[in-house]
Amino acid sequence: MFKITGKRHNQLRTALARLATPSRRWVSLDFFTDAEITALKNLAGTQQFRTAQSEIVHRENRVFQDFDVCFPAPRIGAFDDLAAGLESGLFAVGATLAQNPFETRFQFDDFAIQRYPAGSRGIGIHRDGKRYKHIVVIITLAGQSRLFSTTSRAGETRQRIDDRPGRLVLLSADGFAGRFDEDSRPLHGVDCVRTGRLSIGFRSFG
Fold first, then answer.
1. Whole-angstrom distance, CA of residue 44 vs CA of residue 49
2. 104 Cβ contact partners less than 8 Å away, ≥ 6 residues apart
């Protein structure tokens, strides 16, 4: 499982090329098999969770959090197979583009599992921290909710990101495609948590 086949190589190449265009900050693609999602979901279900801090304050920004979290989650079994495949696969694919969007090879050393109950408020509008480099990976394993991007902290306009189970979501992070300004990292959040949500996220410190 989680092998970067020729088909997946082409999928990632198209996705990275799109993400590297000036106007793009996220992409979503149909990527995983049912068996892969089931393996990840089953392993996630065996982990220990705690209630996330209800609010994160950074400078003048306040972000609510209404979920349980396993962090740092262990890179074991299917998790490690997935992370290793994406680490090597994304960089190798990036190297085939006219301009590699990745400055260097990277490792996903920040791994979290989030579990939202049905009716949760989700997580408020935020950018992933500037300490995270290259790219952010989000994979939903179960549930119905809305992952969205927006152009402002007020979130008047929200664009749904298709993150249904089986899809791979990639977000631009600091340093991707030569981006280092505040706008390199998309504003996003989660709401409309109808039947709960189970998701995993991989990030790199560079």
1. 10
2. 206
- The pTM for the full model equals 0.97
Cβ-contact 161, 83 below 8 angstroms? no
Non-local CB neighbours of 49 within 8 Å, separated by 6+ positions? 68, 69, 70, 113, 115
Question: For the chain, where are the alpha helices, taking DSSP H only?
Answer: 6-19, 34-44, 77-94
C-alpha to C-alpha distance for 130 and 172, rounded to whole angstroms: 11
Residue 186 to residue 125: CA distance in whole angstroms? 10
Nearest to 201 by CA among 117, 112, 131: 112
Q: State the Cα–Cα distance between residues 50 and 45, nearest whole angstrom.
A: 13
State the first-to-last Cα distance of the chain, in angstroms, to the nearest integer: 26
What would you report as the CA-atom Rg of the chain, rounded to the nearest whole angstrom?
16
pLDDT digits (tens, 9 = 90+) for 62-92: 999 999 999 999 999 999 999 999 999 999 9
pLDDT of residue 163: 98
**Residue 52 per-residue DSSP state:** P
d(CA 138, CA 27): 11
| Rounded (10°) CA dihedral 32, 38, 42, 44 | 20
